[in-house]
Each structure stands twice: as C-alpha cells, then as structure tokens.
Amino acid sequence: IKEAHPESNKRVPAIVDALEKLELTPKHRGSQVLEIQNFYPASLDDVARVHSRTYITGLEKAMSKALDEGLIFIEGTGPTYATQTTFAESLLSAGAGITLVDSVVAASKLGLSPPLGFALIRPPGHHAVPEGPMGFCVFGNIAVAARYAQCQHGLKRVMIIDFDVHHGNGTCDAFYDDPDIFFLSTHQLGSYPGTGKMNLIGQGSGEGTTLNLPLPGGSGDYSMRCAFDEVIAPSAQRFKPDIILVSAGYDAHALDPLAGLQFTTGTFYMLASSIKQLARELCSGRCVFFLEGGYNLQSLSSSVADTFRAFLDEPSLAAQFDDPAMLYEEPTRRIKEAIEKVRHLHSL
Ligand SMILES: [Zn+2]
Question: What is the pLDDT of residues 213-244, one digit of tens each?
C-alpha cells in the first residue's frame, strides 16, 4: 500500500539517485555540497510550539495500534497513513528542518552567502493542522522550523513561501493571526483541500501577513514568473524577513499526476534562483527549503536537481528534461487578473 500511495517511500530515493547521477552530491562536489546525515529528532516541545499536546500524545499512543495492525489510516481529513514508525519518523523529519535552520544560521554568521538548506524529507508537512494530521502530513515541518528560528535564534520575522500546487492550509492556520510570520502560498485554484482563497489575508494583528494567490488551471512558467516579480518579490521586500523558509512542492509540474498546472523543471530553477537572490538581498542569505509534494518521480527528481544547481549558481539543465510539446497555452488573461487583484488587496 505504501508504494501505491502517491506519498510513497520511493520519493526521496528517486531524488537522491538523480542527485548522484547528475553529480550534485558531496562525493562529486566536496565542500560545495554538505550532507547532514546525523541530526536529532525534533523534541516534543519543538512540535508543541505548533501542534496541540492532545494531538501529539494521541498520535504517540496510536503507534501501538499500528504495531498490531501493521498500517493504519490516521484520523483527520484526507488520506494519511501511519505505520508503527510514523511518530518517530515524523519527529525526525521535523528535526531535519530544525538542524538545517541551525546550520544555515551558523554559516550566515561566518560568511556573506551561506549555503542554502534543502530538507529532503517525508512525510511532507504543510497540510498538517495544529490539531491533527491532514493530507499525507503528520507534523508541520516548516511551521515547527519557523517557530524554532524565532525561539532559538531570535529571528523574529519569518517569511514562508509555499509553491506546492496545493494550499499549505496547515501552515496558514498556524500563523493566521501572527504579524511576524508572513505566509505566502501559490496553489491551483480549487485544488485540495479547497482552502486558500485570495481574500483570506490574515486576522487581528496578523492582517496582511497571509497572502494567497490561487492560480487558474493550466498556469505555468509564464504565470509563475509574473507571480514572482509582481507579488512574491515585492511582498518579501516590504516584509523584510530575518529568514526565508520555502515549502517546496514539485506537484505543480506539468507531468505531475495530482494536479493541473504546467510548471516545468525550468520554472523550479527560476524559483530557486530568484528566492536565493531575495534571501541574499534581505536576510544575509538565510534560506531553507522543505520538500513537500511531487508525485511523478521523474519530474520530481529532475526538478529538485535543478533546484540544487540554482543553489550552486550553475546553469539550469532544464532543456534536457522539459519537452515543450507537453505544454498547452497558459490562461494569461486570467493570471493577470488574479495578480492585479491580489496586488490591490495587499496594496502592493
Ligand atoms: Zn501538494
């Protein structure tokens, strides 16, 4: 069942294979690419900055049920499965993000441009809500890391950019009234879980620090370039973050089976390289990516590899992977309208 479920345990090995094949690992790059293998799991206190204690202890207890039954579907909305190791693995997944925050912060104190972090983790996290799991996600890895960056490193202002094809509803909920965490999500209009309408801009003192940009089906490279230049960059420049965290989902790729956008490997390269520039310009280069979705193993692994090339300031190899024949015309007029509307709502 695990292999047949789209959020399968083949995803990370497929990425690692591609990184090896394309010579993007420490073996080929020496100190240019650092791999952190040994890291601590997140503590329950780290996770409890985002999730309720009731949920955390309930999940821990459910593990003994999974031990008896092998595989259980855990409560909540959307198909999320658990095995007896899910609790421990989810803490480890959140711990990887925290470790990368530590490492990026430490490097930023030493040099002008610290390496970017990429947490190649599963399960993903951005749908997990404060009260429970949801949509393949157990703990909000990026939300836990955001709170950790604030509490442990005094990085008060955190910007979260979520370009997964689905709305990062869990992250959105966690920080909806928080003025110090800017959550910006692009996602396909009407896709799972149906949240993330444009007029939801945060509440209370957090009004204005949530930005949702739903993209019409068929949106691709052109749309995302406009969204970056006209919405993402100006939002970040105005917010002035101390660190940028990225929910990097690769399921907006044209080949992904779960959605209907038309990003290409080149789109993900553009995003990685532009976000890196923003981080350099605004927060001493402090930036960590978190793997979220991406369910076509081919497009997932080539797009993550191209993300790594952008991190290394190397040219994209997207032309090797992207076949323009697979694309159809983007709904440019509707994109422009959506961008105009969101800019108006947020006075950009
Ligand atoms: Zn997704």
Answer: 999 999 999 999 999 999 999 999 999 999 99
Cα(293) to ligand 1 centroid in Å equals 4
Sequence spans of domains, the chain: 11-345
Q: Does residue 47 carry a pLDDT above 90?
A: yes
Q: Which CATH superfamily is domain 11-345 in?
A: Histone deacetylase domain (3.40.800.20)
pLDDT for 72 equals: 63
Query: In whole angstroms, how far apart are CA 202 and each of 19, 25, 50, 108, 198?
Result: 38, 40, 17, 30, 11
| Cα–Cα distance for residue pair 210/185, rounded to 1 Å | 8
pLDDT at 73: 64
Structure tokens at 6: 């789209």
CA of 196 to the centre of ligand 1 (A): 13
- Residues annotated as catalytic (active site), given as ranges: 127
Q: 284-310 pLDDT, tens per residue?
A: 999 999 999 999 999 999 999 999 999
Ligand 1 centre to CA of 256 (Å) is 10
